[in-house]
């Protein structure tokens, strides 16, 4: 945002220089990006009137002019001028002899034999703009002989602000002045707005069909204006120094009010309107040509201002070209409204252009000032263009609620680290024109209508810090006792889990959390992944619900670089929808094994990694926790080589060999073993229990039983552990046999059973009884037959 410093100082004029004022604003959170002087310094340039113009006798492109330069020149000056637009009666800036412009001293000189006593100036020669096509023409009312710097208000600077999105209240000069008044405790000259006298009764009916999108709309008819009058110089200068060019008087006034108050508004040519005003959403296939000459195809979520027959403007963004005020306009309909920021936000970006109105409406404008701003604009139009104003037709629905917020004095001191008593807090809130009350050190504050960024207690504490001054808050070194925090033995940090995998010969990778949608549909069969609205690349268009796809991509990367033995793991977030349709984030640990079990060597035969190698790695991760592996199908894994990792009745992960179909698709020569675990299941850790060391020798008994081939070995071991007495310290499978001797669809399982008592030596009778009980469990639950 750009504005004139002189304009700002008409509202608030603190006793500080321009650079000091820029520093004050920046330290208050309103960053001043640049302070630039309006023109280069010069003296002895005055307003002059051209009395006569004669052709130079020896030069076709030069004119000999007689110029009235006022009291500084005793007689009219003879000046030779080469500008094409010089003519009798115009008023222009004139540099007298002795003045210095752009490093050139103006002297008495001769041009083709004719004496010249000064120079008539263009805007470029005065450093005002780059326009060098001709002389800078001044209004007829310009006083001859007045110092041009004073007349043209050139002792001025342009401030350029870089505002954060939350400070929409400073998108008008008056809003910036209000901020400076609060920070510097300087008197603010209020923007005085008096109601305009209604001289006609004409009014236009307004129908709001989208009350949530437009809860407030004001409009009035003004008849009999003169749209071809010149915009006053003071207004034209303020617009130009804010980066806007003059168009016509009515449009200039609406732009001026926008820059002054931050409230966008628009004027329609009343003769071009058909029927009533409607505020509605666009219809399908509806189009409008805007003031920037763009023809826009509208969508159903775009808000329109229309009459009975056609769209008039894209609400909150830009007016239409067909109903704009132009030369010859006599009657206008002047509108001023409040639109819901959520309705306007992002629309100009989608349309490929920006506008000052959209920039303000999508951040929020002061809905409490809408009516008075319309009165202000009407008064300016009447004073400059004439005309007669009708009554304001105001349609009002439910406006945003400004809810009170409690601000505790104790909380202020705790957050800021300084002591602000109740009197200071009261003063700072008063300087910011907040409506508040105070009871027992608790302030109840109602945010003003122009501050949409104030909603919670911390917002108001930040306001107190800004007004007090960030540079007034002393820097203090933190004071704290340095003590070691207790590290609970029952919990592991992720770094410990990573270290365990590194020690198992794995290497860590870090991948993007957004992945190719193909990975989700192939490996997880996720038909509705969480899509990104603005992906950084076409192949990174959804959020991952599994880490497996990234690991396979890492494997391909390594294989393409001749790495034939790969061990990788990744710890990261996955994203999926819960039962209510909302997104949730889950931390997972995934790993991949490929190639030989060991690096090629002479002392051990080569063997490709298999399911059980990676299974042993998972068991090490869980340490003493009881986890089981249950056969289950998974779209990414081989049908006969996949398992679900269970902790009790809760599934905590997957393990399996990559499905041959995907192995072929991704051009991988050897089997790939993958696992993925929920990280939370790995963090808790069972503490080691102290037990008495047995002094008596253990007894080993082997059991070989025949069971159906479909029975899961893990279920047998779990059942035996469930029924075993305390003296049984270990039950483990050490042999599986299938063959004719055990029968078709049968298998022989051999278990090792270790028995040991800490109090005595077990006898054969003790061991036989325990083994008999275990065999009874096998026979009863699994129809197991003792193998001879």
Written description of the protein model:
By secondary structure, the protein is an alpha+beta fold. The chain folds into six domains: 2-38 and 157-184, 2-Layer Sandwich (Phenylalanyl-tRNA Synthetase, Chain B, domain 1); 45-151, Nucleic acid-binding proteins (OB fold (Dihydrolipoamide Acetyltransferase, E2P)), CATH 2.40.50; 206-396, Phenylalanyl-trna Synthetase, Chain B, domain 3 (Phenylalanyl-tRNA Synthetase, Chain B, domain 3, 3-Layer(bba) Sandwich); 405-471, Phenylalanyl-tRNA Synthetase, Chain B, domain 1 (2-Layer Sandwich); 494-681, Bira Bifunctional Protein, Domain 2 (BirA Bifunctional Protein, domain 2); 699-786, Alpha-Beta Plaits (2-Layer Sandwich). The chain is built from 20 helices and 40 strands. It has a seven-stranded mixed β-sheet, with helices on both faces. It has a five-stranded antiparallel β-sheet with strand order 5-4-3-6-11. Helix 5 crosses helix 6 and helix 6 runs antiparallel to helix 10. It is elongated, with a radius of gyration of 42 Å. The N and C termini lie far apart (94 Å).
Gist of the model:
By secondary structure, the protein is α+β, with helices and mostly antiparallel strands. The protein has a 7-stranded mixed beta sheet, sandwiched between helices. A 5-stranded antiparallel beta sheet has the order 5-4-3-6-11.
């Amino acid at each position: 945002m750009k504005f004139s410093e002189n304009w700002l100082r008409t509202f608030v004029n603190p006793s500080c220089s321009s650079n000091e004022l820029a520093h004050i604003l920046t330290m208050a959170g309103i960053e001043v990006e640049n302070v630039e002087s309006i023109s280069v310094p010069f003296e002895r340039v005055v307003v002059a009137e051209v009395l006569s113009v004669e052709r130079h006798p020896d030069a076709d492109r030069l004119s000999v002019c007689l110029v009235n330069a006022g009291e500084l020149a005793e007689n009219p000056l003879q000046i030779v001028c080469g500008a094409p637009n010089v003519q009798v009666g115009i008023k222009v800036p004139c540099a007298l002899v002795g003045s210095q412009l752009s490093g050139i001293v103006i002297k008495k000189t001769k041009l083709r034999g004719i004496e010249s006593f000064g120079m008539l100036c263009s805007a470029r020669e005065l450093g005002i703009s780059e326009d060098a096509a001709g002389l800078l023409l001044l209004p007829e009312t310009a006083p001859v002989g007045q110092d041009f710097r004073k007349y043209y208000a050139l002792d001025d600077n342009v401030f350029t602000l870089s505002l954060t999105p939350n400070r929409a209240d400073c998108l008008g000069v008056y809003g910036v002045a209000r901020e400076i008044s609060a920070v510097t405790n300087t008197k603010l000259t209020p923007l005085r707005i008096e109601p305009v006298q209604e001289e006609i009764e004409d009014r236009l009916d307004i129908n709001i069909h989208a009350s949530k999108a437009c809860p407030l709309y004001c409009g009035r008819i003004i008849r009999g204006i003169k749209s071809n009058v010149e915009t006053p110089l003071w207004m034209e200068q303020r617009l130009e120094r804010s980066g806007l060019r003059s168009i016509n008087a009515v449009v200039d006034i609406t732009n001026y009010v926008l820059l002054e108050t931050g409230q966008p508004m628009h004027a329609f040519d009343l003769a071009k309107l058909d029927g009533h005003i409607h505020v509605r959403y666009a219809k399908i296939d509806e189009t409008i040509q805007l003031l920037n000459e763009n023809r826009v195809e509208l969508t159903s979520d775009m808000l329109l201002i229309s009459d009975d027959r056609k769209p008039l403007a894209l609400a909150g963004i830009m007016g239409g070209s067909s109903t704009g005020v132009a030369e010859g306009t006599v009657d206008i309909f002047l509108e001023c409204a409040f639109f819901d920021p959520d309705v306007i936000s992002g629309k100009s970006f989608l349309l490929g252009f920006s506008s000052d109105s959209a920039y303000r409406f999508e951040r929020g404008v002061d809905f409490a000032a809408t009516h008075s701003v319309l009165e202000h604009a009407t008064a300016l139009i009447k004073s400059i263009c004439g005309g007669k104003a009708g009554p304001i037709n105001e349609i009002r629905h439910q406006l945003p609620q400004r809810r009170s917020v409690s601000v505790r004095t104790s909380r202020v001191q705790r957050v800021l680290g300084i002591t602000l008593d109740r009197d200071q807090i009261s003063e700072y809130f008063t300087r910011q024109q907040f409506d508040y009350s105070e009871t027992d050190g608790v302030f109840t504050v109602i945010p003003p209508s122009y501050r949409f960024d104030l909603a919670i207690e911390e917002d108001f504490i930040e306001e107190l810090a800004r007004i007090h001054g960030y540079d007034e808050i002393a820097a203090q070194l933190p004071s704290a006792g340095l003590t070691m925090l207790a590290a609970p033995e029952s919990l592991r940090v992720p770094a410990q889990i990573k270290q365990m995998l590194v020690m198992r010969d794995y290497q860590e990778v870090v991948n993007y959390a957004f992945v190719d949608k193909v990975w989700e549909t192939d490996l997880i069969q996720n038909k509705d992944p969480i899509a990104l609205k603005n992906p950084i690349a076409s192949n990174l268009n959804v959020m991952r619900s599994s880490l497996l796809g990234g690991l396979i991509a890492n494997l391909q990367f390594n294989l393409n670089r001749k790495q034939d033995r790969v061990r990788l793991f990744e710890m990261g977030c996955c994203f999926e929808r819960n039962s209510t349709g909302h997104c949730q984030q889950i931390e997972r640990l995934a790993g991949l094994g490929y190639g030989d079990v060991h690096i090629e060597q002479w002392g051990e035969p080569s063997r490709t990694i298999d399911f059980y190698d990676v299974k042993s790695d998972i068991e090490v991760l869980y340490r003493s926790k009881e986890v089981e592996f249950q056969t289950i199908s998974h779209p990414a894994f081989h049908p006969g080589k996949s398992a679900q990792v269970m902790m009790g009745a809760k599934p905590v992960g997957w393990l399996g060999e990559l499905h041959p179909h995907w192995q072929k698709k991704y051009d991988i020569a050897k089997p790939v073993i993958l696992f993925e675990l929920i990280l939370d299941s790995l963090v808790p850790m069972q503490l080691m229990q102290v037990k008495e060391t047995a002094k008596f020798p253990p007894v080993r008994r082997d059991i070989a039983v025949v069971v159906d081939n479909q029975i899961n070995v893990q279920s047998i071991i779990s059942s035996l552990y469930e029924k075993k007495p305390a003296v049984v310290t270990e039950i483990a499978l050490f042999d599986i046999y299938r063959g004719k001797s055990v029968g078709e669809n049968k298998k022989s399982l051999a278990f090792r059973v270790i028995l040991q008592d800490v109090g005595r030596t077990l006898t054969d009778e003790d061991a036989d009884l325990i083994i008999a009980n275990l065999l009874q469990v096998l026979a009863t639950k699994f129809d197991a037959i003792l193998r001879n």
